[in-house]
Amino acid sequence: MNELLRFWQHLPEHINPYIVQWGSFRIGWYGLMYVVAFALAYALALYRIKREDFPYTKELVEDYLVWAALGLIAGARLGYVVFYNPAYYLAHPWEIILPVRFDGGIRFVGISGMSYHGGLAGTIVASYFFLRRRKLGFWKFSEFIIPVIPLGYTFGRLGNFINGELYGRPTDLPWGMYFPGAPGSGLRHPSQLYEAFFEGLVLFALLWSVRKRSRFDGFLLGIYIIGYATARFFIEFVREPDPQLGTVLGPLSMGQLLSISMLAAGAAVLVFRRRHVRRERDSNH
């Protein structure tokens, strides 16, 4: 038992985050996790088209996922720049989109720093314009696509775990882990795995189980936003804050402030859509 526990605690020290590496050029597992996430979303969306009553096609889903991926990446990157490190990127604006640094010559460093909240906003904006262009209802489509999202998100957090980033705060609990990139030498919460479980697997199970019992178009979107925001808010208490920010309002981190805003937005979606559906129903009587 002690050997198994020791293996678990030291697991991050034995994980190579790169699939291949040539000098400073690297291809990491994190990028592959994004591919797996979108592949899962695609497979689940096709399953819903075949087994459930939705007027969408395979080609539509494929086109949508391209738009969603672009919106996700752009929003996640800009969200990180604006919310988490604006001062640095004001001084180094080229690093927002270029994977190189010019201090001491040209060095390939990749693009690091993504914000989930920014990614969600970017995906919603991209979805709105895509659906408007196709003359499809935003709220109806959200009922179709939302239940397939969280399972893919699980792999994004597993990518963070493989990278040894977004680790938790120090702990003396036995399931804590040693992360090589973390300051100090003690155990830390594997907060990436907490997020993969609660924001990914648990939220997926919830949405998938109620997908056929949605009360109105937009219901599942509101539940998803509230569910993610609630899980993220509490997990942030054991997740190490970004070093350049620390906590920003008393004990609260930037992730928690954004999650509070997200929680309010999810509640607003439910209230707005419920009232809208009621007005429509009353006007038809």
What structural category do the secondary elements indicate? mainly alpha
Give Rg in angstroms.
20 Å
> Which sheet architecture does the biggest sheet show?
2 strands, antiparallel
Query: Looking at the structure, what is the overall shape?
Result: globular
How many beta-strand segments? Answer: 4
Strand order of the largest sheet: 1-2
Low-confidence stretches: none
Q: Report the helical percentage.
A: 55-70%
**Oligomeric form:** single chain
Total DSSP helices? 10
- The string of secondary-structure elements, in order, is HEEHHHEEHHHHHH
User: Strand percentage, roughly?
Assistant: under 5%
Cα(first) to Cα(last) distance is: 67 Å
Mean pLDDT: 91
Quick tags:
mainly alpha; 10 helices; two-stranded antiparallel ribbon; 285 residues
SSE inventory with pairings:
Elements: H1 2-9, E1 18-22, E2 25-28, H2 29-51, H3 58-84, H4 86-91, E3 100-101, E4 107-108, H5 116-133, H6 138-145, H7 149-163, H8 191-210, H9 219-235, H10 254-283
Describe the structure.
- The structure is a single chain.
- The radius of gyration is 20 Å and the shape is globular.
- A hairpin with a 5-residue loop joins strand 3 and strand 4 (107-108).
- The model has no long low-confidence stretch (mean pLDDT 91).
- The chain has 285 residues and is mainly α.
- The strands form two sheets. The protein has a two-stranded antiparallel ribbon. Strands 3-4 form a two-stranded antiparallel sheet.
- It has helices at 2-9, 29-51, 58-84, 86-91, 116-133, 138-145, 149-163, 191-210, 219-235, 254-283, and strands at residues 18-22, 25-28, 100-101, 107-108.
